[in-house]
Structures
1.
Amino acid sequence: MTLTSWYNNKQHLHDGGLIDIKKAVIIYESIHHKNTEKVINYISEQLPIKILKLQDIKTLELKEFDLIILASGIYYNRLHAGILKWLKSINIKDKEIGILYTCGFRYKDYSKKIRKYVIDNGAKYIGNCWCRGYDTYGFLSKIGGIAKNHPNNQNLNKIKKQVENWIL
């Protein structure tokens, strides 16, 4: 079965039995080192999920998706500003929404602001997942950056497993 037909079919064989999966889309922004793009490209090769860059979603029909995953690197201690701006421009009531992000170092939950918006506007927040990503922002460039070689295979598999749980 091709990935396209797998994606278009709501029932899939999993652990020896047929299961229903959610039709999911990842809306993402990945700028500096493309850490987030690396993660979501890996996920889309492994799971039946549509991926769209934030700037390419003008004609997206949300009603065809059961799950929306918002993905971003961290910019100034938050997800890309365009993600929240886009969320505010659409009706998310009763949608399931998860958040995925990459960051050089996680010293707080960067998804808090968007999570609050999602919940306050009637969507079902299903959680977040994250991994480290190579970061050379600001003074970090003077020391060669942090989280070199991230996201790595362990990071990719951890996030894939979380996203898989969301769609099953």
Note: Residues 1-7 have pLDDT under 50 and may be disordered.
2.
Amino acid sequence: MRRVKIMAWAALFMMVANGGGSVCLASAAQARLEKVEGDVFFRTAVEGGTWTAAAVGDAVPEKAEIRSGSGATAVLIFEDEANATVEIRPETLINLSKVGHQAEGRDTEIDLLIGSVLVKAEKIEGESKFKVRTPNSIVGIRGTEFEVTVE
């Protein structure tokens, strides 16, 4: 209950500071680029599809797409997640379809459209979820290391 009140006051403060504009609490949940080598780009729905060169430390929000060129790699870390990292391999395209908090825990889903990712996650507790979707499968993670490839 106390956390809900704090979040409500924080939202009110942000709305007043923003001149009465809307506030999205889910936007705080995101991934961050920890490593970038070669031609790696991302775009968000907010930017209207403009690809931007990725750099170490960039925050990557929900619904963003990340693509890596030939010989390029990147590593994403998920804030507040159980030490989860996703290594994006060369010539890969992913979409961060869900990166957010639910009442029961975190809910993270990555769509792997083409290419390959290496996922490392420590044991995920409670109702939190971490999934990698491909055109033909969904892999739910509770704590492991594995690679998924789409050709």
Note: The chain has one domain: 29-150.
